[in-house]
Amino acid sequence: MARHLRVVLYQDVLFQKPDHHLVFGESLTPPRAPPGPTYNTPASSHPTSELSHLNLNGDIANCHYAPTHFDSLSRTISAMSNLKELEISVPVTLLHGIGALFNGPFDLADLRSCSLFYQCPDNSYWDLSENIHIFAHPTLETLYIRRAKLDYQGFNFMERPHNLPLKKLHLIECDISDDALGDILEIPEALTEFVLTQSEEPTPELEESSDNMGDYIVALRPQCESLERITIDFPTLGSRRSLRMRDFVALKFFRVNWDWQLFGRKSKKPRLDSFGIPPNLEKLEFFNELGTDEEVTELLDYLIQTNDVAAKAVITTPVKSINKKIAHRAPLLPRYRRDSYTITLL
Asked: pTM of the entire structure?
């Protein structure tokens, strides 16, 4: 009977104190252990000050990883053979050990969702190249990465996986080279959702990111046949020419900051083309004010007039056709108002 009591189904595990994961790690590998328990969502989030007194390179019973190569947190995670969701928010001192865990052979054979954030001194960006093999995980479907940096080299390895099941990729306040992003996006078989965000005043200053919206659209092109939702909330991105997105045949929802990020800013050179609208796009959403560029306003107005459009906004805009749509609908209740403009293409 005691033997049956040792098999436990854990749905969620949260290490509220850093000491807990060390104790927990010991419990995962008892002598003559029965088949491993199932873990759904373990989460670890500790500031550096709380980890300073722990021996993170100590032995863990029956663990096949040596302390010289993996910290004990990484070895604890590796023992959770049925893990489905993993949330990491720990000091950057643990970056290498956890990154090595992703670099096969894979212990996390059933991992579906992963969130990565490493706390750096002065709130700087952590090096995503140390965890780059997370993109090659054979079962991962959803990946959230926060405040990471990655230079142009991307996934720079001879053995490159293909047709992996990653569906959602969110890069939150990251400093990512567009070349590296394009390289990484060659790996998934059919990405359906992509999110890229950055603050209005990035700190520290961006070093790897492009300053042009079009470069990131080019980087997304390997997934143009499967992407259904794209959000680029990056206020400082410029736009030198209209975006060409007609080959994004599956795209239904597209969210950006400025209207001129679609059409390109007005310049002394004549405009030769307009925004190449995806053929199945249903909604365009802008986080910032419309109509700051007179020439772009005219192009957006023409786009709306030539499509059967329902435009929703909180306040009136310089775009006449949007104002006309607003005038014929009831005002939104306060709880439904939002500080953005949505253009629905019917």
From this structure: 0.80
